[in-house]
Structure formats: structure tokens, C-alpha cells
Amino acid sequence: METYIFNAAMLCEECATELMVELGNEGKPDTGDSDDYPQGPYPDGGGEADSPQHCDSCQMFLENSLTTDGENYVREALEEGNPITKAKVIWGAFYDLCVHLDKQPNAEQVAAVLEFKDAYEKSYPDWKGHLRDAWHQGWDDKAIGDGYNGNGYLLRQVRNRFGTAWLDTFNPNEGEAS
Length: 178
Description:
The protein folds into two domains: 3-95, no CATH class; 107-177, no CATH class. It is mainly alpha-helical. 44% of the residues lie in helices and 9% in strands.
């Protein structure tokens, strides 16, 4: 995601564009100085950092890469557990650093994954990719249709506790990761 810098703050593209229009309407030119006008765009959410970066205006996650210290920061935040914040869930899914609280999902969670597979694999032969997209886009809790009854909360539990790494090794014929 492309980002901008203004007054030592990171901004998403949408917020930076709005600010540039506002500054332009006030007659303030781009001087090339981030203290005066948003500078960028910078790729990769502003670049590698020691923590996940968010837009200082709207709080959108900027999807930056992490240093080793940043990965440790996210792992520690996830291990703390409560409160489970939306940011922690997004970080864990994006960085694929979800904490494995148990070794395998319980029977009800596996059944929800299998039900999702059965409902979507005809339309989406890469049903695992479709589920990963659902997790990334945040609609897994509302997944209904194509025969799926909407046990999305169970899918979200699988995502939060086991991550995409578990899904990648999941063998639907055995009902567990190999």
C-alpha cells in the first residue's frame, strides 16, 4: 500500500489526497518538505518498521513489512490475548503470525472448514485461496451462499488460532493438517 508522510505522520493515499486538495484550496504549494505538504507516495506501507503502521488520520492498516523486532512485537501482542482487538486480528492474518493456541482445530471448527469447502469448491476450485481471501477481506463471518450456512465465526476462530499456515497443510480427506 502506498503511503505519504506529513508532519511526521503516516497517511494512507486517500487521506493524503484529501489533505492535498485542502492545502491546494488554501493556496499552499508543495515545497518538497513534509512539514508543509504530504510527501510520497512511498511503497510497502512506508517500508519496513518495528511495528505495524496505521494511517494517523483514519487508522487504516498500511500493510508495511516488519523487521525481526516487528515480528516479535506482533507475536507478543497476539500472545497477550485479551483484549482481542481488530488490529491484532488483522496483523496476525496479514503477517501470518497467528498464535497457535492448540495444535489442531476442534471438530466443530474442522466441520466448518469442510462445509465451506463443500459449498465453494465447485465455483472456486482453489477453495483454500477463496477462504484465505475471505479471511483477508474480513467477510468470513458473513460467508453465506452456494450452500454454505454461515458458520463464519468458526472459520474466524480457525484463522485467529491457526492462521493460513494451518489451512495450507489441511488435508480435507483426513480432516486435519498433515
